[in-house]
Amino acid sequence: MHIVNRLRARFSRPPLQTLSSLEAYERWVATYPPRAHNPLMEAEQRAMLDLLPSLDGQIVLDLASGTGRYGILAEGDGARQVVEIDNSAAMLRANPLSYRAQATSEALPLKSKSVDVVLCALALGHLPRLEPSMREIARVLKRDGIALISDFHPFLCLNGARRTFTTEGQTYAVEHYPHLYGDYHRAAINVGLRIEQVAEPRLEAQPEVPLVIVFRLRKAD
After folding, report:
1. Tell me, which fold does domain 3-219 have in CATH?
2. Which pTM does this prediction carry?
């Protein structure tokens, strides 16, 4: 069976329960390492790193940081300061980085124009509306700042795939809302961001199936 078919089987397995993202990560945290730990995340990370600007000397916001996967990478790439923000207290407790805060992506506890680069991985799909979070990302970015945002590809979701995880022998679905390219484009324009590049990584075994969509955006002013 191809890797993508295994992924689809995993995502499509009938869940006993659909959890909010907060409840899901509370249960998932014990087995959620701060690294890419499945083929989809590995493909997502390769695309993110391909679009990543130099972080040397930069102030980086790792938004929806989880256990710190991108914050750790940012520190290793020479960032001057990395700020970890997540709405899950459980994930932040498992995050090894120093500067952490619990908050939602829709109300960031940061000054306007205080961040050079925002990294936000596989998180905005948990929210039904993009614009409140995109507005906050635009607000905290400095002029000409860069945001990298990844999401599960809407094609997967619209074809019946689910975001799932398994813990203690039980499989759960996590709430997810598919956002199309047009949704991101509209939200970006409305808040003063410009999409510069888009990546839709696939697996070599089945290159016709995009797994993730990744946006590189720049703040206009």
Report:
1. Rossmann fold (3.40.50)
2. 0.91
